Each structure stands twice: as structure tokens, then as C-alpha cells.
Task: inverse folding
């Protein structure tokens, strides 16, 4: 039943909608995400001035957004897309990310433009507020719909079960691949590696989550850059040692994307599968159009919506066009996508085959990257889903505190969920979040264009 719902939500209509909104915003903004990319990178490290509304720096907000996006989608999701959609799925990830960069710019600009300062001084913002304040009170039902899907995505999908499953699965594959040391729990046998790693992650996540947005931001600022550099460095090592195979792989990616090298099911069928899996996993990874990143962007100490839009859009470039591409090419040049493996095992096999280290060392490197990436995603999505819950129930600290503990409980039980069901639930909530947010981005695109023009006219 879950699979049928997933196939319906992530069918042709949503794929067309996501790409269409990205193309529409790219045209309206005249390719700003390409022409102003240098300025965006410069703004990441711009010092935030005192006295501005906000709680975290631009760099902190970007790291917090990246902490929520750089996760199992970059390591497990890319592998899943290549196994089910073929090499062509990587091309459609690039397309989704290219146009998604314009989408990310627009939604994070609107987050600053329409954010709200609560009575106790903390900042809240995101799609629910730019829908309500930008489109009008009559659209509050759409804002509530987004917030409801956001709570579901954080609590039941992308924020908890998917990430903790990825972590415990990677730890088990490294320390106890044959399930030699097991314990009987919840009616099934589980490896001690799963139980212990799940418990450790739950405790560590609880210690950070209870501290709120500033503690999440500080942890993300430390972990995300360090682990991203480690992962990209490892993938680069694979690509350098297989440099002669990269041109052949790139040709294969393009040919498979357009059905020129069709697999069973015919050219049109292979194109649709590659497109569906590539875009679905690309959006799962970079979250452009989902409306999650604007919730983090709204907390930045700035009074310039355009500047934060520019900074936030670099998250899509870093996440998909760099890190997902590194994963995809590493899997393709080592030819591990079609040897009968699934999920994280595909990427592990690629690292073992590609890195000039013993297999144990390669597996350990990937395991650590996956653990830290997924851990920071758990933290980022706790903040997102908390803000969604706050919009639904209002400023009620006791309810939010109860939600935090429920979120921590979901992390605790996550390792014992069925893997296929976990990914399907995450996909469903991802798709549902996109609909109200994309409607708002089209409706408020005029505001985005006007703010952008005003900002650059002032700069002149």
C-alpha cells in the first residue's frame, strides 16, 4: 500500500511540477543562481553585524541546512537511485539540482522577508509564514497543510527512521556483517552492533536537541564542514585513480538518461524510471522545493532577504552537484551499481574497490562519514519539524518539549523498522511537503523578483 501511495505522489505530475517551478524561477530571475554564484560564496563568510534580528550566522544557518540535507541521501539514496534507475538517474539529479538552486534561492529569500519575531524574542519563519503573510489569511489552510506534512517528514521519515537506519546498518555491516552477536528484541533478532549504535546515537541526539537551535547550529558548524571535506576527499581519491574511466561513464550517464542505451522495458520506460528515481533522490538529498531550508534560513542575523537567498542556494550546489556527484561517479567508475547489491552496500563496495587502502579501512571511512552525516540530519530535521509543530499549535513550550521527546523516541525505535518501509514513508512525506511550497513559490515569484531588483539596484 505504501509503495502504491509513493508511486502516485512521485509520479509524472510532481516531477513535472518540481522541474517546471525550477525552470520558471530560473527564467524569471534570469539565471541569477549561475551569474551570482561567486557573490553567494563570498556572502557565506561575511561577518554578521550586531543588532540585526536573528539567532545564528549565515554560515551557521547554511551548516544547519546542510546538516539536514547531507545525510543518507548522499550515500545510500544515490546508490539506490543508480541501482533502480540506472546511470541515467545521475543526470536527472543534476537537472533537478540545477533548477533547484533557483528554487532554493527564492524560498530562502521569502523566509527572511516574511519571518516573525515571537514575544520571547526567538525567530520563526518558513513556508507556513510566507504562505500566510505573503499570500494572505485565506491561504492559511495551505500553510497548515505544509506544517502538518513537515511534522510527518521529520518525525516519521527523513528526520528519524531513515537516518538512524542508515547509521545502524552501516555500523552493523562493519562490526558484525554476518550477525554473529545477536539479541532477541521486539519479536526479532538484532545484532548487538545495531542495538548499541542506536542507543549511543539516541543519547547524543537527545543531548543536542534539548539545547535548541543555537546548540544544533554550533554542532553543525563543527561537524558538517569537517565530514564533507573527508568524504569529498575520499571520493576524489577514487576518481583520480579511475580518471581514464570518467569520460566513458559520463557518456553512459547521458545515453541512459535519454534512453539511448535502454534496458529492459524499452527506451521510454528506462527514461521515466531514470527520471523518477534521479529527481526523487535528488530532491530527497538537497530538499530544494520542499520548504525545509527556509525554516533554518529564517533564523539568520540579517536584514537582507536577497543575501540570505544567495547563501542558502549554495547548499544545493554543495549537496547535489558536488557530494552526490562524487558518490554517483565513484559507484559508476568502480562498476558496483549492477552487481546485485542494494543501498549502502553499493557505496561500500565502491569505496572498497576504488580506494587504495585495505577493504576494512575503506569501509570504516565510509561508515564514519555516514554516521556523522546522518546524525547531523537528525538534528536539523528536529528543528524543522519543531517549527512546523509550533506553527500548528502556537507558542506552547510544553507541547514543543513533549514533541522533542517524541522525536527522540522515534530515533530510538528507528533501527528496528523495516528498511524498505522507512524509505517509502520518507519519500511520501517529501513529496507531500513539496506541493503547498511550490504553489506558494509560483504565487510569490513576483515578490522574489522585486526584492532581487531592489537589492541589486541599491548595490549599484
Result:
Amino acid at each position: 500500500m505504501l509503495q502504491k501511495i509513493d508511486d502516485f505522489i512521485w509520479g509524472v505530475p510532481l516531477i513535472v511540477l518540481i522541474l517546471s517551478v525550477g525552470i520558471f524561477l530560473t527564467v524569471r530571475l534570469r539565471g541569477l543562481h549561475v551569474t551570482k554564484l561567486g557573490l553567494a560564496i563570498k556572502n557565506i563568510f561575511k561577518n554578521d553585524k550586531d543588532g540585526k534580528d536573528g539567532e545564528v550566522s549565515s554560515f551557521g544557518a547554511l551548516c544547519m541546512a546542510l546538516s539536514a540535507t547531507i545525510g543518507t541521501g548522499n550515500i545510500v539514496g544515490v546508490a539506490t537511485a543508480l541501482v533502480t534507475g540506472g546511470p541515467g538517474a545521475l543526470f536527472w539529479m543534476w537537472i533537478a539540482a540545477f533548477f533547484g538552486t533557483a528554487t532554493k534561492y527564492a524560498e530562502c529569500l521569502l523566509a527572511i522577508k516574511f519571518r516573525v519575531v515571537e514575544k520571547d524574542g526567538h525567530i520563526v519563519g518558513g513556508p507556513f509564514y510566507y504562505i500566510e503573510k505573503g499570500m494572505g489569511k485565506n491561504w492559511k489552510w495551505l500553510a497548515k497543510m505544509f506544517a502538518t506534512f513537515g511534522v510527518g517528514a521529520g518525525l516519521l521519515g527523513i528526520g528519524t527512521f531513515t537516518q538512524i537506519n542508515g547509521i545502524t546498518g552501516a555500523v552493523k555491516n562493519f562490526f558484525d556483517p554476518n550477525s554473529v552477536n545477536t539479541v532477541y528484541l521486539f519479536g526479532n533478532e538484532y545484532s548487538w552492533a545495531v542495538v548499541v549504535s542506536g542507543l549511543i546515537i539516541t543519547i547524543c541526539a537527545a543531548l543536542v536537541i534539548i539545547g535548541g537551535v543555537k546548540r544544533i547550529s554550533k554542532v553543525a558548524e563543527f561537524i558538517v564542514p569537517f565530514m564533507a571535506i573527508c568524504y569529498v576527499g575520499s571520493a576524489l581519491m577514487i576518481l583520480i585513480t579511475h580518471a581514464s574511466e570518467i569520460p566513458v561513464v559520463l557518456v553512459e550517464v547521458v545515453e541512459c538518461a535519454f534512453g539511448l542505451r535502454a534496458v529492459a522495458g524499452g527506451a521510454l520506460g528506462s527514461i521515466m524510471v531514470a527520471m523518477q528515481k534521479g529527481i526523487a533522490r535528488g530532491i530527497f538529498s538537497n530538499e530544494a522545493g520542499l520548504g525545509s531550508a527556509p525554516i533554518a534560513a529564517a533564523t539568520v542575523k540579517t536584514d537582507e532577504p536577497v543575501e540570505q537567498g544567495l547563501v542558502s542556494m549554495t547548499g544545493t550546489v554543495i549537496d547535489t552537484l558536488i557530494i552526490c556527484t562524487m558518490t554517483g561517479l565513484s559507484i559508476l567508475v568502480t562498476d558496483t551499481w549492477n552487481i546485485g547489491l542494494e543501498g549502502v552496500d553499493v557505496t561500500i563496495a565502491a569505496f572498497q574497490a576504488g580506494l587504495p587502502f585495505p577493504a576494512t579501512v575503506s569501509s570504516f571511512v565510509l561508515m564514519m562519514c555516514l554516521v556523522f552525516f546522518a546524525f547531523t540530519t537528525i538534528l536539523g530535521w528536529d528543528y524543522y519539524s519543531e517549527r512546523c509543530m509550533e506553527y500548528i499549535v502556537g507558542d506552547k513550550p510544553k507541547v514543543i518539549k513533549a514533541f522533542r521527546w517524541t522525536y527522540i523516541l522515534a530515533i530510538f525505535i528507528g533501527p528496528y523498522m523495516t528498511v524498505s518501509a522507512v524509505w517509502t514513508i520518507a519519500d511520501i512525506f517529501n513529496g507531500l511537503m513539496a506541493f503547498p511550497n511550490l504553489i506558494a513559490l509560483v504565487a510569490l515569484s513576483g515578490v522574489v523578483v522585486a526584492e532581487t531588483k531592489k537589492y541589486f539596484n541599491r548595490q549599484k
